[in-house]
Structure formats: C-alpha cells, structure tokens
Amino acid sequence: MTMDKSMRMMEANKELVKQASFETYTEGNTDVIDELVSDSYVLHDPTSPEAIRGREAFKEHVESIRRAFPDLTTTIEHTAVEGDLVAVQFTVGGTHEGPFPDLDLEPTGETFEMDGMEFDRIEDGQLAETWLVFDSLAFAQQLGAVPDEDSATVH
C-alpha cells in the first residue's frame, strides 16, 4: 500500500467513526447506521449490562440515549488511527431529560460533562466494534443517581 493510499484510508476511517459513532448520537440520524455499521456490530458500553449486538440494537441504543439526553453534544479532542483501529478522545455532555434505561434512571434534569475514550475496529469499510471507556461512576454522580464523595457521610 502506498503512503498516499494509506493516508486516504486513515482519513476515511476517521470520518467513518465520526459519522457512525458520534454524529448518530448528536444529530439523531440513525439511517446512516445501515450504510456505515456492520450488521454484526458490537458495542461495549460501561453503562450497559451486556454488549449491544447488531445494527438494530445499536439503533435502539442511540435512540434511547437521544431520548435521555436530547441536547447531547460531543467534541472529538484527538483521534489516532493505526490500520483498522481508530482511537478517539472525546468530551460529551448533555441534560438528563428522559428515562435512561441502562441505569434504570428516570429524568433528573441534571447536566453532565465528561471525557472518554473510544476504540473502534473497522472491517470492510464499516464500523465493526466499539469499546467505550469513561468514568461511569462520575457520570452517575453528575446525574444524581448515586451520591458523590462530597455528599456521602461516614458513620
């Protein structure tokens, strides 16, 4: 593979991840999932009790996040690509305005902002697998689902 072709592939993989794994959540366009995401896609999300498998399950997951956080924003801070792997450091935030089934949490009206990392595997030009890494305890604390360290009392 020539350097030029390799650079084009790296840029294409970055754009694929941006569209399939970030813009679907912020813009709510789940139609692109059929084109950009593998039918056998797997999402490993620390707030989900088990892996999310397949396009339809991913669409449902995106829609549930959009209902819970309709003003969700993401900022991609850094991206690194090596072969078929894409690593992304991001900031995400929003207001909890709808039920969040993964945490069995009714709307709190609280806002959150956190940093996270995402590792994506590309296969045959589609998003095949995603591993999310973020502080899910701090996330739950910001939503008021669990007390934060400052408000916890020791007996």
TrEMBL record:
Origin superkingdom: Archaea
InterPro entries (UniProt xref): Cyclase_SnoaL-like, NTF2-like_dom_sf
Pfam families in UniProt: SnoaL (PF07366)
Name of this chain's protein: SnoaL-like polyketide cyclase
GO BP term, pick one: polyketide metabolic process
